[in-house]
Amino acid sequence: MPMFIKRFFYVRQLVSVMQHSVRHQSGRSYVFLRDKAYINGKWITSKSGNTFQVLNPANGEVLGTVPDCGAQETEEAIKAAHDSFQSWRFITAKERGAKLRALFELQIKHHRELAELLTAEAGKSLKEATGEINYGASFLEWYAEEARRIYGDVIPSSSKNKQLVVLKQPIGVAALITPWNFPNAMITRKMGAALAAGCTVVIKPASDTPYSALAIGALADEAGIPPGVINIIPSSIETTPIVGKTLCESPLVTALSFTGSTHVGKILHITCSCIVKKVSLELGGNAPFIVFNSANIDKAVAGAMSSKFRNSGQTCVCSNRFLVQEKVHDEFIHKLSESIKSQLVVGDGFQPETNIGPLINAKAVEKVSKHVEDAVLKGGNILVGGKQHDAGENFFQPTLITEVQPDMLVYKEEIFGPVVAILKFKTEEEAIALANSTRVGLAGYFYSEDISQIWRVAQQLEVGLVGVNEGLISAPEAPFGGVKESGLGREGSHYGIDDYIEIKYVCFGGLN
């Protein structure tokens, strides 16, 4: 290609980026900030003209406004996805994989800009936000490869004149409702599987973090993904219920995937049942973190730090209830408290030394404060932290509570904050009973150097994910999902495709 043509395309791309780049009072500009909904390949406003603000949880700065989409925009997005499905489903798996690969490469290329936008709207440290962008990209890479591995079956027939074949076909339009704590990776994990299977999607991002979702629309444009395959409709907290109801009740939406609270998941499940829609749910957890007498305590402390304080404790797989056997109880507490004091730095996510950012909003701070106050009233002992941090109104001190009992909120409920709650136990049987004494079962962790104990406990924990001597267990190759009231279905891995396909049996007769 002649040099002047290359320069032309470079300048055009640079102008396009500059047109979308938005500078804020902080002095930062966010290249991928988009202030419109993304439907059928177009950036649009809401029909009502209504918008809602997006705030930086670290300082309350208004990052901008986005359209407050309602039922009309939702139906428009559904129609666009349904129309696009008629052609996308017949594109070869190799071509779909190539589009996902292009999207993966763009996310890696622009990881810094995407991470900065994520930090601004979600509050997590820039280092952690960069980790999420790379993690989210890994699902696009994984499903770009899995698209060509959706195999059917040939079943040996009991009749000589019949051939029995099983086909796996895309289910149709998938509605994806995603949370604020991983506003990029929770979309790519769902969307990657759906697109690989041949489905099209309507994405409803969390009201607190719509910009990271809309940035994916910008990448999709650049990757050459056809209009209508990906649609993104932000909505405010007030409008979200009608958007959810529309997605659940639309006969054109054939699958719904939701990550969020168990309470909301149950409502969506019931609403979808009116037309027997396929539903996958990744709901709340209350993860036990068990430290046995045989554990390597230094490794257990390191695992506790990474598992508990990731994203300021705001993940569904964060360790929630720490069960420590009596012989190592005091040693574990001492080493953990020292690690909390020496390793954790609270502050704005853009500060390079920060590794604990704000909670997402004031409501989250109120909940964590309530949990800590309840523990103290019922006999808990605050060893570290225990109150709001002076970095700002949405910040909470990393906290360590001992002498925890099963009737405390920090034991019974998901904390979703930087609070470690420790309960002492005597026997393995007691630990298993305590760990399983909840209606949810997403993740569980334990530390032991006893191989027999490791096998017993891994089998007996009533959770969907188990970390054995490891605090960080998520990976694109591994299935992610829970048991009991923690949800239905699995995301990631080759099992993640299952929620977006229908199994069709074909019987060929009269062959003899």
Describe this structure in words.
The protein is of the alpha/beta class and 512 residues long. The protein has 15 helices and 24 strands. The protein has a 7-stranded mixed sheet, with helices on both faces. A 6-stranded mixed sheet has the order 11-10-9-12-13-23, with helices on both faces. A 3-stranded antiparallel sheet has the order 7-8-24, with no helix packed on it. It starts with a helix and ends with a strand. Residues 1-19 have low confidence and may be disordered.
Blueprint (SSEs and pairs):
Elements: H1 3-20, E1 22-23, E2 29-30, E3 37-39, E4 42-44, E5 51-55, E6 62-67, H2 71-88, H3 93-109, H4 111-122, H5 126-146, E7 153-155, E8 163-170, E9 173-177, H6 185-197, E10 200-204, H7 210-223, E11 230-232, H8 240-249, E12 253-259, H9 262-272, E13 278-282, E14 287-291, H10 297-309, E15 319-325, H11 329-343, H12 362-377, E16 381-384, E17 399-402, H13 409-412, E18 419-425, H14 428-435, E19 440-441, E20 443-447, H15 451-460, E21 465-468, E22 483-484, E23 487-488, E24 501-508
Parallel strand pairs: 9-10, 9-12, 10-11, 12-13, 14-15, 14-20, 15-18, 17-18, 20-21
Antiparallel strand pairs: 1-2, 3-4, 5-6, 7-8, 8-24, 13-23, 16-17, 19-22
Helix pairs in contact: 2-8, 3-5, 3-6, 3-7, 4-5, 4-7, 5-6, 8-9, 10-11
User: Averaged pLDDT, please?
Assistant: 95
Query: What proportion of the residues form beta strands (DSSP E)?
Result: 15-25%
Radius of gyration: 24 Å
Helix proportion range = 25-40%
Tell me which oligomeric state these chains represent: single chain
> Structural class, from helix and strand content?
alpha/beta
Number of strands: 24
Strand order of the largest sheet: 16-17-18-15-14-20-21
Largest sheet: 7 strands, mixed
| Uncertain residue ranges | 1-19
Number of helices: 15
Q: Can you tell me the overall shape?
A: globular
N-end to C-end Cα span:
59 Å
